[in-house]
Design goal:
Layout: H1 7-23, H2 28-45, H3 51-62, H4 65-79
Helix pairs in contact: 2-3, 2-4
Length: about 80
């Protein structure tokens, strides 16, 4: 089963990657840009596996670039307390 199949597992996975990046010295601007790039990749290359991902994909596709950056930043905030720490 992929981490994309379950919303809670996906948030934990993202939280772990966020903490890993912070631990390696990534600043917030870099984290924000990586989140945007991941969102862009997922929206264009990966079929949503659950309802939450479908909503995010639909929002991403109707958003302009500035709004997509805002969505990516909100996802970073959403997962900052997730993961195994």
């Amino acid at each position: 089963m992929s981490v994309l199949d379950n919303w809670e597992q996906w948030k934990d996975f993202l939280g772990d990657r966020l903490h890993q990046g912070q631990g390696e010295g990534m600043n917030n601007e870099t984290i924000s840009e990586v989140a945007y790039e991941v969102g862009e990749y997922l929206a264009n290359q990966v079929e949503p596996k659950n309802e939450q991902e479908r909503v995010l994909a639909q929002m991403w596709k109707v958003a302009n670039e500035q709004e997509q950056h805002a969505i990516a930043n909100m996802m970073v905030k959403l997962v900052q307390n997730e993961g195994t720490h």
